[in-house]
């Protein structure tokens, strides 16, 4: 079996990368160990096309188009050409991509086209209550019509996407496989008193603005509270930095309580998690919640927004203290509560790691993926 992953987020060497890149890398390396050939193809902000082998995986990185207009068309032509060349070397059985990836693919192909739903344009536009971009919406609808099979990373993202697209496709839910090996049981002695930690992309949907707004309220009870924000910055099409936007809303009196660290190597994340007394995940929209799982795998006390994907994945574990999304008052109340209640914090710590180790066994999730791939080829 030969599977090609279409993604623009596959990590390059030790570069920082987001949740989808982390997931694909781990799954691809697991599949390789099970004698399944893996290739990865995507468009990146690089000057020249490059091809290399990383951990037995063939990686093809295409340079971003220099066209002033219709870059998508240039990308489409070069992607399909590269797929044809890869297919000649070793027959491709399955191409897996995101919600928009197959918009410009042929309807019929010798390989199966699989969409893994991590949350597409319709989904996040609805979750964030913003207008749908007509061009992206069109691409997504066409992409779903051309795909052969579908995997959802949560029941919620599958159900809601199906409803929004008014498309009666059938999907299989398989939770993201997670490499738990780097995430050890953290030591209480390494915690920094009154330190909060957020890990994730610094963008609107992560709800960081509400977390920042909660700091002045928390300071009334705990003046030494420190919030560290770790993650890559989100820059819009006009070059505006979301981190820059957030910094503008912080008053001078609160600046020493809030630290923007930016991206760090993935291997350093566990140590930074260990240093936090509380990990906070204030997202207003998610399809899964990889960074939340990583925090729990470290055995940290976790507070998170009460959104449906988080509830679906860990809501029955009683190991997370939930708050209302977009509520600085509720965030501050939960933080103060856990800073004050040592017993409750220890209770969450004991339950969180245990739940993740029991429910996110990577071998079991891998078998689900392999079974799915085999089933669509039969």
UniProtKB/TrEMBL annotation:
Coiled coil: none annotated. Residues 190-355 form the Glycosyl transferase family domain. The keyword Plastid does not apply. One of its GO terms (molecular function) is glycosyltransferase activity. Its EC number is 2.4.-.-. Residues 18-180 form the Glycosyltransferase subfamily 4-like N-terminal domain. This is Glycosyltransferase family 4 protein. It comes from Polaribacter marinaquae.
